Amino acid sequence: MIYFIKFVYSFVLPPGLFVILLLGLTVWLWRRSRRPALALLGVTLLLYLSMTPWVSNLLMGGLERQYDKPELLQGDVIVVLGGGASSGTPDIDGEGNLFGSAANRLLTAVRLYRQTGLPILFSGGQVFPDSGNEADIAKRQLIGLGVPERDIMAENRSLNTEQNAANTAAMMNSKGLSHPILVTSAFHMPRAMAFFKDNGLAPLAYPTDYTASRGSGLYPAMFTPSPGAVNNTGTALKEYLGLLAARF
């Protein structure tokens, strides 16, 4: 019963509701002009597929499987890329919080720090007027998680991945560092690696924050619209477009 309720909700609430409304409009239009109705049906099907976990997992999985976790950790600094932050929101020891992806990256960096003792360089600035400065927030949270301030570097000016790579390379060069262990979300790793290599670095990829499960089968919920799937589909398409732009 619980799965049936979830199925019904997926078409009663957005984004599934919009699929139902468009299908209704297609039926209404079919009685008047079939060619526009067929065009609208095609658009509706594309929109529906983009809302399903099945499609979003295929797209995200194609990105997330490009780099595996390394067996040996070889490097002289742990570089973590930001992924968004809020400003003015309450935290245990101050204000401002990293968004989910950035927080997962930060936790992975702390675990790697405890394994290796390497310093952490967090890269990310204040992207929008109402967002938090990612590196400044990350530094405070790293200290709160037990990482000594002397082992933390904050690159707090970057607004996108290209600037992350360029500004991190400059900071690393000024401190005599050259072999970063790069920590970012698995879906983001291919584009991040491309930019870091373009800036003369040879990073070791350490992907984290996975979204697409591996080895899972197909079941009805994989074909029901969900807001999370829409978000993941959009994120994946952005990464593929970014990879294409980086190569040209």
From TrEMBL:
Instruction: Tell me where in this chain the DUF218 domain is found.
Output: 76-242
Q: Name one GO cellular component term.
A: plasma membrane
Q: Does the keyword Magnesium apply?
A: no
Which InterPro entries does the entry link to?
Cell_Envelope_Assoc, DUF218, Rossmann-like_a/b/a_fold
Q: Does the keyword Mitochondrion apply?
A: no
This one is known as DUF218 domain-containing protein
Q: Where are the transmembrane segments?
A: 7-30, 36-59
Q: Which UniProt keywords apply?
A: Membrane, Transmembrane, Transmembrane helix
Q: Which GO terms describe its biological process?
A: Gram-negative-bacterium-type cell wall biogenesis; peptidoglycan metabolic process
